[in-house]
Automatic annotation (TrEMBL):
Coiled coil: none annotated. It comes from the Bacteria. One of its GO terms (biological process) is DNA-templated DNA replication. PROSITE patterns: TOPOISOMERASE_II, TOPRIM. The gene is gyrB. Its cofactor is Mg(2+); Mn(2+); Ca(2+). This is DNA gyrase subunit B. A type II topoisomerase that negatively supercoils closed circular double-stranded (ds) DNA in an ATP-dependent manner to modulate DNA topology and maintain chromosomes in an underwound state. Negative supercoiling favors strand separation, and DNA replication, transcription, recombination and repair, all of which involve strand separation. Also able to catalyze the interconversion of other topological isomers of dsDNA rings, including catenanes and knotted rings. Type II topoisomerases break and join 2 DNA strands simultaneously in an ATP-dependent manner. GO terms for molecular function: ATP binding; DNA binding; DNA negative supercoiling activity; metal ion binding. Keywords: ATP-binding, Cytoplasm, DNA-binding, Isomerase, Magnesium, Metal-binding, Nucleotide-binding, Topoisomerase. CDD domains: HATPase_GyrB-like (cd16928), TopoII_Trans_DNA_gyrase (cd00822), TOPRIM_TopoIIA_GyrB (cd03366). The keyword Cell division does not apply. The keyword Nucleotidyltransferase does not apply.
Amino acid sequence: MSKDSKVQAAYGAEQIQVLEGLEPVRKRPGMYIGSTGSKGLHHLVYEVVDNAVDEALAGHCDQITIVLSEDGSVSVSDNGRGIPTDIHPRTGKSALETVLTVLHAGGKFGSGGYKVSGGLHGVGISVVNALSEWVEVTVRRQQKVHFQRFERGSSIGSLKSEDMSKSDKTLTGTTVCFKPDDQIFTDGTSFEYGILSSRLRELAYLNGGVRIVFRDERNKSLDSDQQFYEEVYFYEGGIKEYVDYMTKEKDSLHQEIIYVNSEKDGVQVEAAMQWCVDAYSDSILGFANNIRTIDGGTHIEGLKTVLTRTLNSFAKKRGKRKDGDANLAGENIREGLTAVLSVKVPDPEFEGQTKTKLGNTEVRGIVDSLVGESLSQYLEFNPGVIDLILEKAIQAFNAAEAARRARELVRRKSVLESSTLPGKLADCSSRDPSESEIYIVEGDSAGGSAKQGRDRKFQAILPLRGKILNIEKTDDAKIYKNTEIQSLITALGLGIKGEDFQVKNLRYHRVVIMTDADVDGAHIRTLLLTFFYRYQKALVEGGYIYIACPPLYKVERGKNHTYCYNESDLQKTLSNFGEKANYSIQRFKGLGEMMPKQLWETTMDPKTRMMKRVEIEDALEADRIFTILMGDKVAPRREFIETHSLELDFSTLDI
C-alpha cells in the first residue's frame, strides 16, 4: 500500500460509532452470520480477517496471519494500527471493549474511520465475540501492549495494559484469538482448511501487496518432518496475477493482460482482462469491497456495456465491420474472455436474498467511464491485440448466425405449454416450480423404471440417449443443433446462453442428475455439470442442481433387506451378522436393473433418498478444474490425474 493511499483521519475512540447491544445475536445468530452450520462458522473467521483487510485498504497493514490451533481456536493477527484503547465518549468503556461488546460499533460505520470497508454482513467483531466460547484480544499500539478476555460476549475483567520492551516499541497491530461456541454451532466447530484457504487466497489476489500467512497447527496437519502445514499468499500483481492463474491452462489470444486501475467520485475500479483462443464462453468474476458478487450487479453491467460499445467502435475503425453490418453482440465480444473486476465503493448497497448483487446505480456509469477510457487508450496503442480480439468476436458472431434458427426455436418455446416440450419428457402434473423436480437419467431402461416408480405429481423424468456434447470445447452453433442439448434447454426452461438467468422461467427448482454408479455414469454426470456450469452458471450458484445417490448393494436376510451406498456401508451391515448367517448380496450395475419400487425407495422418495446438492465454494477453482478436465489440452489433465490418483479408493471404481 502506498503512503498516498492511507486514510489521513486519526483513528481513535471517536471514530467508533455505537448502534446496539449484543443480546439479539445469541438468540438469533442466523440473522447475523447467515446460518449456524459450516458457512456461519467460517464466516466468523472472515469477519475478523475483514477487519485486518480494512486496515490494508486504508494503507496501514501489509501482513495478516491466520493460525488454526489444536484446541479448536483460531487466531488472526495483523500489523495495522491496533484497535483504539482510549475511553469511548458514549459508552465510558475503552474503544476496544466497545467494539467487542456492542453490535455495529466499529470504524466501518461513518466517514471518520475507513473510506472503504469489506465484509458482507458488516456485523463486525462483536458478533464473533457473542458467538464464541471465549475471545482474547491483544493490541500493540502507541508503545503499549493491551490485553482483554471475553466469554460468550461479556468482558472478563478490565483492559490490562503494560509498556512494550524497547526492542518491540515500533510494533503495532491486533491479534484476535477465539474459540467458537459449541452451544451455538451444534453441528461442530472444526474449521475446514480448504474452505478458509480459498477465501484467503482470493483476498490476497484482490489486495495486491498484502501478505497473508495461513498455518494449520492442528496435529492432523503435521507432515513427516513434524512440521505444521503453512501457505503464504502474496501477489504483488493483484488481480492481474488472478487472471493469469485462471488462464494458465488455456491458450491466450494476446500475451499481455489488459489492466485498468482508476478512481472516480470515491469509487475505485480495478479490472484485468484476457481473451483466450480455446474458450467459447466468458468467465467474469466480480467483486465489490472484496465480496464476491455471484449475482452480478451494476459494476458487471457497466463492464459488459463498455466492452460492447468500445469493441464495436474499433471494429468500424479497423474496417472489420461496414456501416450496414449488424453490431457484434455482447456475448460475441465476450467469447473467450476471462476477467476480474474489483470495485471499492464507500457505501455499497447489496441486493437479493443472499446479498451478493451490487445495487449502487452510480457504479455502472463509473465503471463504464473508467474502463472505456483506459481500454480505448490501450487498444489504440496495441492494434495487433484489438485485431485478434475482433477476429474471434466476428467468428463467434458468424457461428451465432449459423445457429440463429435453432436459437429462435428454443426462444419461442413456452416454458409451461406441454405441447412444445420434448416428446420423451415425462412431465409432472404440478405447475409450481418450487415443488417440482426433474430427474435427468441415462437411457430408456433407467428412464422406464424412473417413470414407473416416480410420484407423478411433482417428479418429471427426462431420459437422455448416450453422452451429451462436451460444451467446454464447442461453439454455439453445435450446441443449438444438438438434439439432447435442445431437449435439456427446453425441458428446464433455460432460455438462451449469455442472457441473464430468469428464475421465473425455470420449470423445476430441483434438477437431479441420476446416472449409474460406474465410470460411464460418472462421465455423463461430468458432461452435464459442465453444461450447466458453462451454459447457465446461475443454476449451479443458486443451488438448483443435485446429484442422486443410488445404492450400490442390496443385502437380503430373510424377509429384511438393507440398501448400502458404498463399500463401507456394506461392511458395516455385514459386521452385524453372525458368522453362520444366511444372506444374499445384490450388486446394482445400473439403474435399469432396479425395479420401479426399488428405485423409488432408494433414490426418489424424499423421505428415504440420499441426494447431494452441487455447490461452489471456490468459483475460481471450479472454473479452472472444468477447463483442465473438459478442455482440449491433454497435459494438464494428465498432471491432474497423476496428482490426485492416490486419493482414489480403487475398490469403489467399477472398472
